[in-house]
Amino acid sequence: MNSNFIHTYVSVDCVVFGFDHENRLNILLVERHLDEKRQIKLPGSLIFSDEDVDDAAQRVLHELTGIKKMILKQFKCFADPMRANNENDIKWMGMEYKHHIDRIITVAYLSLCKIDHKINSTKYSTVDWFPVDEVPSLPFDHNKIINESLVEVRKWIELDFSIIFELLPKKFTIRQLYQLYSALSEKYIDIKNFHKKISSFSYIVPLDEIETNVSHRAARYYKFDAKIYKKNNTKLIK
Amino acid sequence: MNSNFIHTYVSVDCVVFGFDHENRLNILLVERHLDEKRQIKLPGSLIFSDEDVDDAAQRVLHELTGIKKMILKQFKCFADPMRANNENDIKWMGMEYKHHIDRIITVAYLSLCKIDHKINSTKYSTVDWFPVDEVPSLPFDHNKIINESLVEVRKWIELDFSIIFELLPKKFTIRQLYQLYSALSEKYIDIKNFHKKISSFSYIVPLDEIETNVSHRAARYYKFDAKIYKKNNTKLIK
DNA sequence: GCAAAAGTGTTGCTTTTACACCCATGA
DNA sequence: TCATGGGTGTAAAAGCAACACTTTTGC
């Protein structure tokens, strides 16, 4: 064996996005414990010997939230040879996996979650939402992964507009959708024109319900109809 | 150590696209030798102990073509636990890497090459172009990788139109660009309107040269100006 | 009534699409 | 002269952007 070739550990890490009531993108982070110190990180795991990476990511998401089938998308393999060379990270991996780990490459996933959904982790004692621009310094290359995930989630929504509804409540106003879309697309869109366009789509179904207790004209609630969307699968928003 | 976690080998595999004179997408495949038999496969390699996957892919591309800096894009990690369980594949890996390899995951890359560029492989004795719909059955999950790469290369060009010029000669006619674009986009585009639109772009620069020996009005050659493209980076073709 | 946001309508501009028409060249 | 494709023009249709106007609600 040419010893230059490497046998390595492989993990998956998941960046789960949520959209909060202050119109900010948030990410789910968990706590790791090291020498009495607590530190937050992305949820992740080594893969099992008989497990595909997609299955490992699905497992991590389930252990994280208690939700059975979350939408997910692999977006990049991070394999910098130095990505797990920090002393604390090596120490933590030794504790977590009861073994000295020389090198670890990770496959990063995106996922989306309604921020009001109850989080019922079977693995982590502490799971919290963090607004993306308030994420502190994280172990490994997790900050890098998050930065790149932001670019990817935008591309994902450009490619398949329907996944945006994973971030909204089942019933939502067009203003909510507008604010989410604006947070993701970065370019200014006129809300009136947005309203007209969105409400013209057949898969955006108006409900009989309207907002209450607002100090202005109440907005109508809408729901997303995935079946109609799939039938027409047009390009929607350019 | 929880022995369910796995230590595995990691490789990169590269799908290099070319566009031939019959308007077909082609892929570069290499030969592997096993028991006097020859079989073709995607070019690839295990990664070195101090090597990032992007660097490994760059190395594979260089060993494959002799070209220094080829454009490349990571597109997916393939990690099905059964992807290297075929007897012949296990045998071949034993010969190639002088070691029994229990499991191998691979990170797949896209690359683009002008099909007339001279191929000067320092590693493979046989390197050939195959039209995508004439690719035979390949080892591992290489057919699957190629199928998914086709979807990805289309997305890539939608996202960054400028990389399409990696597949064309330095000077090209608008018909050539049209045929390549048509082969990639699958939906019908009117060639006259395409011509008008393309020739209106400032980064498509007309040359003084025109075709010779054609039995119709000779078409003008154009070149792509990357500097002008970068300055204006508009969305070009929707 | 006022402020604020919902929701609709109008208008002009840009882009797309479908063709018509003339040009250049080899056979 | 004919076939083939190059290249330009035009006009209708569709889509987009800017913004005016009316509606609804709480204070």
Automatic annotation (TrEMBL), chains A, B:
UniProt xrefs under InterPro entries: NUDIX_hydrolase-like_dom_sf, NUDIX_hydrolase_dom, WH-like_DNA-bd_sf, WH_DNA-bd_sf, WHD_NrtR
Family annotation (Pfam families): NUDIX, WHD_NrtR
Residue ranges constituting the NrtR DNA-binding winged helix domain according to the UniProt record: 164-224
CDD domains: NUDIX_NadM_like (cd18873)
Chain coiled-coil ranges: none
Annotated ranges, domain Nudix hydrolase: 10-144
Protein name: ADP-ribose pyrophosphatase YjhB (NUDIX family)
Lineage of origin: Bacteria, Pseudomonadati, Bacteroidota, Flavobacteriia, Flavobacteriales
